[in-house]
């Protein structure tokens, strides 16, 4: 936790400084009759810098390494698989379409993350993809991304 | 009496078949979402919000409000049967609820929670109905300085939501405000922090952020662990669920106290149902004649907090509807929904959209009755839903998150944004930051900036304008106190620790 606090404190501090200086550099701090677009961002960056510095100093002072914040071993593998599969799904959304993407995504996670039996996996995947299509595309008229076959 | 006229207008709206159906769907889905561990009320509302875009806003809010009430009860089922809170407002219920279940009294625990929720919810709606118009009329006199002071108070008290570390709560809140700055400036029209990306020029919508932080964030936190938890089996016949005369005698005042306490805490901007349950539990333990039974299955320990969280969920609607300031993370998301529907929450809502406000209030009565019926008769059905393995549930939730984020603007960019915030939400949850504070700040940020700049434009004494007007002066002092008191207390505690280390 402490090392996570150090990293977070340093990153937030850098972000805050960039945020404030960026605001002053690119936007007007004061307009014709009042505060301009840079006014609030500048002060927000300043407040964040103070908060981040407090976090960083507190974390640097503490000797206690704190508990691990990323899981290790199996937990990390599972987490990476879920994030990776989701990212791939999102990246391919406009290529394979929502319906086919949903089926593939559910099959991958249910079968390879959780070892659910094949029949159940297929049934759930088809049901979720079909229901999603019916509710959004047909009922609510929100066209979900379509794949090569038009759904 | 225009009061009764308003209420009958409300019931004429709420009792249309479609709105009744929406309230029923809301309660059922709410109980399910509340019951499933790893997905709580804010995710539920964020996920269902896209479904309401095609509807009339009144039907939409009726469903979301019914869902919110449902989640408050659904979380109880999980707390009692698995000893894992289904959502954060049911954490306290685990203590005595699970003990009761171990003693074979799961039915009684769920029954008293349902009855307490019904009483608290119903009294809460009556209070909502009485307090809101008065508050709305009073806040009509608000100018930009008062609005800003109130928003500032809402933002500073949000750290009450977090509990763990005030510093991390404030960091989350300021980060949310910084994200709110992205996009066209409301007054000058300059695109800020857009880096030439057209999607960023329109600003970062709160909905993909909320779905990511809550939906994906919670799912990822649950994804680490394999397998599910053991569910206690219990009997849920009519006789098992109805409280005995003795249960009732012990619980009635706990329910009454929980209701009043919960409603008051709910009205406070920032402090929501979760805070109210902790306070109610502490209060019941203090006033009880047999405090030693708490932690060993005292029914008051279930009845009080469960009543408090339902009353607080209703109370949280008061500042959202009358002032446009949400009282909890969930109402912050509802508020975002109201703004998307083109409604401007605040004092004028009561005058301009009476059918919306009164339809919502009337539907809350109906939702409470449905909640009581569903939660006593259909408990076994909801328990069965708990047996769905997480490995099946989790990918389904992710699919709904993606669909929800996409459907807002039919934009894959939004979906990517949701995923980024999902990973951020996971990290925030793990490291003790507050996704709720970030969401609240993102929703309130643009409103606060506009009020701040308008105030400074009309002011001829700089920031003095906030302190020289009576209402805004009081609110500003309260906001400053909300920051200073925990900070000073934290410093004092640190000094004491340092002193004891030296000694």
Describe the structure.
The complex is a heterodimer of chains A (151) and B (503). Chain A is mainly alpha-helical and 151 residues long. Helices cover 72% and strands 0% of the residues of chain A. In chain A, helix 3 (74-91) packs antiparallel against helix 5 (98-113). Chain A is flat, with a radius of gyration of 24 Å. The model of chain A has no long low-confidence stretch (mean pLDDT 85). With 503 residues, chain B is an all-alpha fold. Chain B has 24 helices and 2 strands. Chain B has a two-stranded antiparallel ribbon. In chain B, helix 3 (41-48) packs across helix 10 and helix 4 (57-82) packs antiparallel against helix 6 (106-139). The longest helix of chain B is centred in the N-terminal third of the chain and has 34 residues, at 106-139. Chain B is globular and about 70 Å long. The N and C termini of chain B lie far apart (69 Å). The mean pLDDT of chain B is 84. Classes of the chains: A mainly alpha (151), B mainly alpha (503). The interface between A and B is large, with 69 and 56 residues.
What labels describe this entry?
heterodimer; A: about 150 residues; mainly alpha; 6 helices; flat; B: about 500 residues; two-stranded antiparallel sheet; 24 helices; 2 strands; about 75% helix; about 0% strand
Sketch the major β-sheet of chain B. 2 strands, antiparallel
Question: Globular, elongated, flat, extended or rod-shaped: what is the shape of chain B?
Answer: globular
Q: Tell me the fraction of residues in β-strands of chain B, as a range.
A: under 5%
Range of helix content of chain A = over 70%
Q: Uncertain spans of chain A, ≥5 residues at pLDDT below 50?
A: none
Strand content of chain A: under 5%
Oligomer: heterodimer
- Overall pLDDT metric of chain B: 84
Tell me the distance between the termini of chain B: 69 Å
Q: What is the CA-based Rg of chain B, rounded?
A: 22 Å
Q: In angstroms, what is the radius of gyration of chain A? A: 24 Å
Q: Trace the largest sheet of chain B across and list its strands.
A: 1-2
Distance between the termini of chain A: 45 Å
- In DSSP terms (H or I, runs of 4 or more residues), the helix count of chain A works out at 6
Overall 3D shape of chain A: flat
Query: What is the number of E strands of chain A?
Result: 0
Order of helices and strands of chain B: HHHHHHHHEEHHHHHHHHHHHHHHHH
Q: Whole-number average pLDDT of chain A?
A: 85
């Amino acid at each position: 936790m402490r090392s996570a606090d150090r990293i977070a404190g340093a990153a937030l501090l850098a972000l805050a400084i960039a945020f404030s200086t960026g605001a002053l550099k690119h936007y007007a701090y004061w307009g014709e009759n009042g505060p301009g677009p840079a006014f609030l961002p500048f002060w927000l960056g300043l407040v964040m810098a103070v908060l981040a510095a407090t976090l960083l100093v507190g974390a640097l002072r503490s000797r206690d390494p704190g508990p691990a914040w990323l899981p290790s071993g199996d937990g990390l593998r599972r987490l990476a698989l879920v994030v990776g599969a989701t990212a791939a799904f999102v990246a391919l959304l406009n290529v394979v379409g929502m319906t086919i993407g949903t089926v593939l995504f559910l099959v991958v996670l249910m079968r390879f993350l959780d070892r659910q039996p094949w029949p159940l996996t297929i049934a759930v995947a088809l049901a979720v993809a079909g229901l999603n299509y019916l509710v959004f595309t047909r009922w609510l008229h929100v066209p979900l991304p379509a794949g090569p076959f038009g759904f | 009496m225009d009061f009764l006229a308003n209420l009958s207008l409300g019931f004429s709206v709420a009792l249309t078949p479609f709105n009744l159906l929406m309230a029923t769907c809301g309660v059922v889905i709410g109980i399910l979402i509340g019951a499933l561990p790893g997905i709580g009320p804010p995710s539920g509302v964020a996920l269902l919000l896209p479904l309401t875009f095609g509807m009339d806003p009144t039907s939409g809010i009726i469903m979301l409000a019914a869902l919110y009430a449902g989640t408050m009860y659904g979380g109880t089922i999980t707390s009692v049967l698995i000893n894992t809170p289904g959502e954060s407002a049911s954490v306290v219920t685990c203590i005595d609820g699970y003990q009761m279940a171990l003693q074979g009294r799961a039915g009684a625990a769920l029954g008293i929670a349902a009855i307490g929720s019904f009483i608290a919810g119903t009294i809460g709606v009556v209070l909502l109905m009485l307090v809101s118009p008065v508050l709305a009329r009073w806040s009509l006199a608000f100018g930009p300085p008062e609005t800003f002071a109130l928003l500032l108070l809402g933002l500073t008290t949000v750290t009450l939501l977090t509990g763990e570390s005030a510093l991390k709560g404030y960091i989350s809140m300021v980060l949310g405000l910084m994200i709110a700055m992205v996009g066209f400036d409301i007054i000058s029209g300059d695109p800020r922090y857009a880096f030439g990306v057209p999607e960023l020029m329109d600003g970062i919508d709160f909905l993909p952020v909320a779905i990511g932080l809550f939906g994906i964030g919670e799912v990822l936190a649950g994804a680490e662990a394999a397998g599910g938890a053991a569910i206690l089996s219990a009997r849920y016949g009519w006789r098992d669920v109805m409280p005995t005369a003795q249960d009732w005698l012990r619980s009635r005042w706990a329910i009454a106290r929980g209701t009043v306490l919960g409603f008051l805490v709910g009205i406070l901007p920032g402090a929501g149902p979760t805070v109210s349950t902790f306070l109610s539990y502490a209060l019941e333990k203090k006033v009880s004649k047999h405090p030693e039974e708490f932690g060993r299955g005292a029914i008051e320990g279930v009845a009080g907090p469960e009543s408090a969280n339902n009353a607080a969920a209703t109370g949280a609607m008061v500042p959202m509807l009358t002032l446009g300031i949400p009282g909890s993370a969930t109402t912050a998301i509802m508020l975002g929904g109201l703004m998307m529907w083109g409604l401007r929450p605040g004092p004028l809502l009561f005058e301009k959209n009476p059918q919306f406000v009164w339809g919502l209030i009337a539907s809350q009565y109906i939702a409470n009755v449905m909640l009581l019926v569903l939660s006593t008769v259909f408990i076994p059905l909801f328990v069965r839903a708990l047996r769905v393995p997480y490995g099946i549930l989790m990918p389904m939730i992710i699919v709904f998150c993606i669909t929800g984020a996409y459907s807002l603007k039919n934009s894959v960019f939004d979906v990517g944004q949701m995923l980024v915030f999902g990973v951020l939400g996971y990290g925030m949850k793990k490291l003790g930051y507050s996704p709720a504070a970030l969401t609240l700040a993102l929703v309130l940020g643009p409103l606060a900036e506009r009020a701040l700049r308008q105030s400074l434009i009309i002011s001829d004494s700089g920031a003095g304008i906030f302190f020289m007007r009576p209402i805004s002066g009081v609110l500003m002092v309260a906001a400053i106190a909300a920051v200073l008191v925990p900070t000073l207390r934290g410093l004092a505690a640190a000094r004491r620790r340092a002193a004891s280390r030296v000694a």
